[in-house]
Specification:
The protein is mostly helical. It has 17 helices and 2 strands. Helix 4 packs antiparallel against helix 5 (79-102) and helix 13 crosses helix 15. 47% of the residues are buried.
Length: 338
């Protein structure tokens, strides 16, 4: 049998995620049962559509972060189950809405819900999941939890609107783009970890540490997603490669390629992002330019910095199995590109 040092990086990353899943399998079973229970409605389309999304798979990374953070914080109770379900409902609701905005036909390798039930139903079921999330927050009896997760929901929406406003904006700076992804992606990761500190009554410095861990991990997660859109595989991504490009999204690999572009390449980017639709030939040319300027590698290097920051944020907690699991899951995030 191969030892860990001899395994390919991608396999090591998968093992890191598997260990986290196995460590909290019993807790996640409680969360999944709660999710199924709270998805129910006498309006049949609601549980059908919600189940289509929730049962589509995915790593459930965000609720797992809530569960693991609660364990790291020494929490003893059951409110973390409700918070983990809350985080997953918020995430699922945003996915339903995002798929309508993005027009992507796939979600986690399955037909996007709006392609099956239509846009109107997807919007309304997304609203239903948000409502369920808020009910679960209230049931914890912690006003601070409600403040964090309600605030996160608003920030996520603002981030999505900012990204929509930045479509085809070649002048978008890397700094502005990082602000967008911090809002639309990293905020929920940060909140998923932070609320566990709240219910465990941890001091402010450790609450901030868990927030930073989740925020840095979320930034890395999105940057890797940006990179995978240009070098990934549809089966692994669960969506079509090049979706971001077709939608005219300014992501980090494009921003870095544009920054290095010569006048002829600049003309290509201006012409291509000025179109209503971008073709497969446009995508092939874009991928060639991104490869030429090593923009994917630069994006992954930036993601690696955030992974190191995430691991560093946990150093204020005593060493142990759960801290190691949370540190190792950073490797899963960064090495998904392998």
């Amino acid at each position: 049998m191969l030892n860990t040092a001899m395994k390919p990086k991608g396999q090591m990353a998968d093992n890191a995620m598997t260990r986290l899943e196995e460590a909290f399998a019993d807790d996640m079973a409680q969360v999944n049962a709660l999710i199924i229970e709270r998805m129910q409605s006498p309006v049949g389309m609601i549980p059908d559509l919600a189940s289509h999304l929730v049962s589509a798979g995915g790593k459930r990374l965000r609720p797992l972060i809530t569960l693991a953070s609660a364990d790291l914080a020494g929490y003893r109770g059951d409110a973390h189950y409700k918070l983990a379900a809350t985080v997953e409902f918020i995430h699922s609701a945003t996915l339903l809405h995002d798929d309508i905005v993005d027009g992507s036909p796939l979600r986690r390798g399955k037909p996007a819900a709006n392609t099956v039930w239509g846009n109107s139903a997807s919007v309304l079921v997304g609203d239903f999941l948000f409502a369920r999330a808020f009910s679960l927050m209230v049931e914890t009896g912690r006003l601070r939890v409600l403040d964090i997760l309600a605030g996160a929901s608003s920030i996520i929406a603002e981030g999505e609107v900012r990204q929509l406003a930045a479509i085809a904006n070649l002048d978008l700076s890397e700094r502005e783009y990082m602000q967008i992804i911090e809002a639309k992606t990293a905020e929920l990761f940060a909140s998923a970890a932070r609320v566990s500190a709240v219910i465990a009554d941890l001091p402010d410095d450790k609450e901030e540490a868990l927030d930073r861990y989740g925020r840095e991990l979320g930034l890395a997660f999105q940057l890797v997603d940006d990179a995978l859109d240009y070098v990934g595989h549809a089966a692994k991504l669960g969506k079509a490669v090049g979706d971001d490009f077709r939608e005219g999204k300014m992501t980090m690999p494009v921003a870095k390629a544009i920054r290095c572009a010569d006048p002829q390449e600049q003309a290509f980017w201006i012409k291509t992002f000025g179109k209503t639709r971008r073709t497969d030939d446009d995508l092939a040319k874009a991928m060639a330019l991104i490869k030429r300027h090593k923009a994917v590698e630069a994006t992954l290097e930036q993601a690696a910095i955030h992974v190191r920051n995430a691991k560093q944020a946990l150093q204020c907690f005593a060493p142990g199995k759960t801290r190691a699991l949370l540190e190792n899951v950073c490797d899963f995030v960064i090495e998904r590109s392998v």
